[in-house]
Amino acid sequence: MFYYAKLLTTIFIMLLSMGTNITAQQSTKDIKWVDGDDFGKSAQIPYWFKDSFLEIELDLEEALDEEKLLMLYFHQEGCPYCKATIEKNFSDPTTKDFIQENFDVVEINIRGSRSITLPNGDVVDEKVFSKLMQIQYTPTILILDDNGLNEPLERMNGFRPLPVFQEALLVVSGKDEELGFTLESEPHLVKEIYFSENFDLSTFTGEKPIAIFIEKRDCAICQQMHREAFASKENYKALNDWHVIQIDIDEADQEIILPNGISQKIGDFIEGRGVDFFPTIILYGLGETEETFRMDSYLTNYGVRSTLQYIESGDYKSQPSLQRWADKTRVARRAARGD
Predict the structure, then answer these.
(1) What is the extent of the structural domain holding 45?
(2) Which residue, 26, 95, 111, 279, is most buried by CB atoms nearer than 10 A?
(3) Which residue in 290, 294, 257 sits closest to 274, CA to CA?
């Protein structure tokens, strides 16, 4: 762990101070990333976040005038992934310095009631703004350049482990030109019992919900999630009731038949959906022929289990927000237990 942290710090310091050619070997093996069931605890928002009047256009103009990008950090109280992002990412000294130099950070509480002025002059509260920006996970980070809210430069859904978070910041800020990243892991796909070899998904439309695991062989995060979230008894049991396939991004020419009956090559399927995080799991509710939801962030057992239940139950049809659904479900469970 010490070697891991020291290496990351060295990479950033060398990049920022010297701009030399660097190749970083980073291992995520055996790292405990976040306690996903640690609800009710929050980390304090860093003091160096921008003290904003929440006028998005003005915040963006001020950032661009200083040759920075605008980072919108969406969070909520009691969110363990938000707590991990603050404590593991924003509080890392080198990362913090890099963000302050290259970004203005504005925090948005998805449950909050502060007024936000949109570029078109409309005024909405934080809850409405979060809905407008289609925030499903907390934290979600949107990074804006001169294209503004209509076309965010980067969107990070959910928690990102520190090396992945750092790499995303380097790329989006244009500071990665001479930096090569590799995540140290054995190049293989983890196979699960519930993975099917039947790639004709149209056969199962109306019979089972469908999940497509999009992975790559050198993905340390994929392997971490298979050791943890995808290995839990609850998720194993749940996914056995789904039709689940695993697709390898290196098998770009392999054909799959989507739930709507259209045949498509894997490479075209991935590109057409803008997948840039691995693993990404695309979910289709029972009878759905278009994508219902996706898991495209690092999730623990609880996060995966909640998302699967959200789709399995069909509640997504009446409750479009996973966060709100999860809150209500958790409160109902506690009431049933008499907590």
Answers:
(1) 23-183
(2) 279
(3) 294
Same domain assignment for residues 173 and 320: no
- Rounded to two decimals, the pTM is 0.70
Nearest by Cα to 54 from 105, 96, 101: 105
Looking at the 3D structure of the chain, how many domains does it have?
2
What is the tens place of the pLDDT at every residue in 187-246?
789 999 999 999 999 999 999 999 999 999 888 888 888 888 898 889 999 999 999 999
Cα separation, 161 vs 4, whole angstroms: 12
End-to-end CA distance of the chain: 38
Rounded to whole angstroms, the Cα distance separating 69 from 31 reads: 31
Q: What's the CATH code of the domain at 288? A: 3.40.30.10
Q: Which two tokens stand for residue 173?
A: 């800020």
Please confirm whether the linkage preceding 163 is cis (ω < 30° from 0): no
Examine the domain organization and report whether 179 and 104 are in the same domain. Answer: yes
pLDDT per position as a tens digit, 61-80: 999 999 999 999 999 988 88
> CA neighbours within 13 Å on the CB side: how many for 110?
26
> Is residue 107 in a domain?
yes
Give CB contacts under 8 A, 24+ apart, made by 307-316: 307/283, 308/235, 308/238, 308/239, 308/242, 308/283, 309/238, 311/209, 311/283, 311/285, 312/209, 312/238, 312/241, 312/286, 314/285, 314/286, 316/285, 316/292
How many helices (H) and strands (E) the chain has is answered by 11, 14
Contacts of residue 143, defined as CB under 8 A and 6 or more positions apart, other chains included, come to 69, 70, 71, 72, 103, 152, 153, 154, 155, 156, 172
Phi, psi of 244 (to 5 degrees): -120, 130
CB 285 within 8 A of CB 318: no
Beta-carbon neighbour count of residue 261 at 10 Å?
A: 12
Q: Do 63 and 143 fall into the same domain?
A: yes
Helix H segments across the chain?
2-17, 56-65, 80-84, 93-102, 126-132, 162-172, 220-227, 233-239, 266-272, 301-312, 322-337
